[in-house]
Automatic annotation (TrEMBL):
Any one Gene Ontology BP term: ribosomal small subunit biogenesis
Gene for this chain: rimM
Gene Ontology cellular-component annotations: cytoplasm; ribosome
Residues in Ribosome maturation factor RimM PRC barrel domain copies: 211-243
Protein name, as recorded: Ribosome maturation factor RimM
PANTHER family documented for this protein: RIBOSOME MATURATION FACTOR RIMM
Family: Belongs to the RimM family.
Residue ranges of every copy of the RimM N-terminal domain listed in the record: 19-105
GO molecular function: ribosome binding
Top-rank lineage group of the source organism: Bacteria
Amino acid sequence: MESKSDKASATEAQEWLLIGRIVGAHGLNGHVKVFAESDFPERFTQAGDRWLQKPNDEPNGEPIRVRLTSGRYLDGKNQYLVKLEGIDHRDQAEDLRQARLMVPEGDRLSLEPGEFHVSDLIGSTVVMQSTQFILGTVTDVFTTGHDMLEVLLADQDLAEPAAENTAEGTTDAAQVPTSLEEISAEIAHPSTRAKAVKKLKLQARRKQKKKAPKTLLIPFVEEIVPVVDVAAGRIEITPPPGLIDLA
């Protein structure tokens, strides 16, 4: 998989696929270590043109063409040791730290069955296969030994029950005061003070939950993600017990 990057410039409107990030220099002869953002080893091992965008460049600035002359995989690190033409000294390699390696979006490599480009997955709607409940939207894909879908959960709060038990009974969402005036009025009377305080705490917790969008990481394996319909922008999942409870 490879991630779609920003447009190179307003004039060319060229879009790019991010294939890796330079994370450091290696040795004295200009080699760089590249953290792979692509599942295609040939992006780092086969000689040819790549495009480079340094961290100080404008976000939408046009990347510069570089030639990759050689590369090899570094075991267990999801990194490659790469040599770029014209980068022959360590200080030159250090200057490229955090630079992004890219290729034009049109330069997509062929996919095997069951493989997908990251840019085709982002924005897909994620639904529970058993109930067709909409869980959320894919916002990113991470590689941590295996691929993980980052899902921005929909407005429905799976972690929040429809009603919350208190020491004095059940408090439904509809019973929670929506204004300070209501809360103050109840707190002012000793007979309703305890219940009003509990309502206030419940309201504060619910407001806190709404402040930050919730995300969930879902392992992108066939057992959990059996259906990926790129054309429809739809992904169906069959999560094991407990996975959704982590949201």
